[in-house]
User: What shape does this take?
Amino acid sequence: MSCVSNLIYGKAAIYMKKTKNIRLILAVIVVALIWSLYSPLSVEARLKRHLSAKDKMLSVGQEYTLKMKGISSKDKKKGRKVKWNVSDKSVAVIKDKKNYSITLRARKTGNVKVSGTYLGKKYTCKIMVKDETFGEQDSEEVTDADEDKSNIYLNASEVNIYYLSDTDKKYLSESDNHIYSYQFKVEGINKNTVVKWSIESEDKVSSFKVDHGRVYMWMNPRYDENHEDALVVATLENGRRVTAKLHGYSERNEAVKNIINGFVNDSLSSDMTEYEKIVAIASYVSLNYEYQLYQSDWIAMALGGSGDCFSSRCFVRYLCQAAGIKAVICVGDNLDGMTLVKADGKLYVVLTGFRDTQPRKYRIYEPTEDSLQSIVSRSHIDLSYFD
Assistant: This one.
């Protein structure tokens, strides 16, 4: 009997021990689940992408920085960027752009949507732009009592400014009749008033710069444009803006246009065929300009008298343009010095820029269909330009 009792008690002890172990394991699992549910999430898990604002109200001329928030450090390390878009650039424009933020400038009254697309998902912000008088009462409260708001202006309303680089001073001199920098001042304000100066331009990169009211140019405007327009803006502490118009000119561009116009007036006539004109153009470039290796600036060639094959083909193109003849430069392997020109209804290749001493040779020929297609393909030329 005692043996049976011992056996029963032994089995009961083993069962209780197993049950205790199972309860212990279950308790550990429950604690782990509770910890996973209530423990603080990692920074990465808590991130939720969104724009810094869904709606924003601005006044004309005001700037605002819109940011994409909630981007993980892992994604930042991968260099993934946000693609920004403004629905109406006449109302607001992107003034500055970084990887995950943009600075917007309000241009005129209206409504605009700004979107940022990241990893295929689009996030939007609605911008409402009021006119410049928006918030004017608040501004008046902080305006200096000595300032007459109706009589605040810049010392000039419109200024023409010219640019001449140090490199181009080898060929040209500054003119006594031209202004190369202008010092703007805000009239009608207290001398201690803080003024923030800026340049506003339609160009992505403006040729103008301003330093404490002194406006100057740091590069040439594009040759194809007569001049570059912009605004100089003085923003007062109370948000009031006063502006003046800027017109920028290039001394080198003006000088080259005079050279080209002189050639057209002296060497071309209305009774010449277009083919005769391109012969005169090729001859002019080849006979009057020397070859200079790696001098690929065609304007410097026109001013200084020498350039390489790339300069020559560009020079031919602009001479043709001035003569009313359509021309496109050819770019690619074995296309050195080539310009594709349409004269008297036919397409010709004008070949200049040979590595010879003056007088240099030139060549004009009508390409075969296969040769023309090869040139067009390699140079990515759209033949519809010649229609």
User: Anything to note?
Assistant: The longest helix spans residues 2-38. The first strand starts at residue 50 and ends at 51. The CA atoms of residues 63 and 376 lie 45 Å apart. The chain is about 30% helix and 30% strand.
